[in-house]
Design goal:
Catalytic activity: alpha-D-glucose = beta-D-glucose
CATH class: Mainly Beta
Number of domains: 1
Keywords: Carbohydrate metabolism, Isomerase
Pfam families: Aldose_epim
Pathway: Carbohydrate metabolism; hexose metabolism
Largest sheet: 9 strands, antiparallel
Number of strands: 27
Shape: globular
Helix content: under 10%
GO molecular function, one term: carbohydrate binding
Length: 348
């Protein structure tokens, strides 16, 4: 079942909230502004249904949001150094919205746009199909790109995000969702008791501006070795130059082992909630909310460092094409397709 409600108006545009709910009581709230996840409710091991994502208490805060709360970001997720988009015979200069660099699609990226939408209901799943056209030259990007982002809630505890895009010129595209998860439920505590596991073989080394240097860091013997699962509280207590660069936590691209199952798992020790993110993508930026400000007001509490964890599944930057994995490079007329499925559950 999908419920549609106009909850505000901005600049003549209606702010629409969609609510999808399955028969198990799992519920997803999404906005047409930035395709933002504005609530995600799942049970714990005792059956208590609570919100497991950060969302603003006042919907108007999304207009000025700078942490991409719950949003789809693009055209390209992540930082592009100096806004230089280099193609074979040309260099395009993108908008600079983080100092001298381009972040998450620019000044008015997909996260801060109103999307068109359609709703599809079936016996076993509900779907919201968001669509957007990004015109040639927008934020400096070449090519007019038609994008679809599809939210799917199934009856079996799965919530999927599907991405589709097509460009009339060769360009860069790498889409992700920037939801901050907190499995404690209703933001009872920070993410220190979350255990995170990923089949990563390395991370991108970052400079002081969180820009990939072009070098890879092997994770063996470092706080970034989460192949067997690590409690984040323990990670935050360790010392490592790459943790220091990111304000004491993760804000790094974890590159999956090539033959491994592309899946990130999160487990909250105190209430048994689990989250599994299975993806088509070659890796993910895991961000532990290292710079979430105290001045922010969410539905169930205030902002603070380590308030939530983002699992940003996405393509590799073009600079890492030698790794022989999908990058953000998109040829004209070729379809871009990606998907990530979030499965929620509990364990004792």
């Amino acid at each position: 079942m999908i419920k549609k409600e106009i909850i505000d108006h901005w600049d003549g545009e209606p702010v629409v909230q969609f609510t999808m709910e399955n028969n198990q009581g799992m519920k997803v709230e999404a906005l047409n502004f930035g395709c933002r996840i504005n609530g995600l409710y799942v049970p714990d091991e005792k059956g208590n249904i609570e919100n497991v994502v950060l969302a603003y208490k006042d919907v108007k805060d999304y207009k000025t949001d700078s942490i991409y709360l719950g949003a789809v970001v693009g055209r390209v997720a992540g930082r592009i150094p100096y806004g230089r988009l280099e193609l074979t015979n040309d260099v395009h200069h993108l908008s600079l919205n983080e100092g001298s660099h381009h972040l998450h699609g620019g000044t008015t990226g997909f996260s801060h746009r109103f999307w068109d939408y359609d709703m599809e209901e079936a016996d076993d799943e509900d779907r919201i199909v968001f669509s957007l056209q990004s015109v040639d030259g927008e934020e400096g990007y070449p090519g007019t790109v038609d994008i679809k982002v599809i939210y799917v809630l199934e009856e079996n505890g799965k919530f999927s995000i599907e991405y589709e895009a097509m460009s009339d010129k060769t360009t860069w595209v790498s889409l992700t969702n920037h939801t901050y998860f907190n499995l404690s439920g209703n933001q009872k505590r920070d993410i220190g008791h979350h255990v995170v596991q990923a089949p990563a073989e390395c991370i991108f080394e970052l400079d002081d501006y969180l820009i990939p240097t072009g070098d890879l860091v092997k994770i063996d013997g470092t706080p970034f070795d989460i192949r067997e699962g690590r409690k984040l509280k323990d990670v935050f207590s360790e010392s490592h130059p790459q943790l220091s660069v990111a304000n004491g936590g993760f804000d790094h691209f974890f590159v999956f082992e090539k033959e491994a199952e592309k899946k990130i798992s999160v487990y909250e020790e105190k209430n048994g909630r689990t989250l599994e993110a299975a993806t088509t993508e070659p890796g993910a930026v895991i961000y532990t909310g290292n710079k979430v400000k105290d001045s922010l007001t969410f539905k169930e509490g205030n902002g603070h460092v380590f308030a939530g964890i983002c699992v940003e599944t996405e393509r590799l930057p073009e600079d890492f094409r030698e790794l022989d994995r999908p990058t953000c490079h998109l040829e004209a007329g070729k379809p871009y397709k990606a998907a990530t499925t979030f499965t929620f559950g509990t364990k004792k």
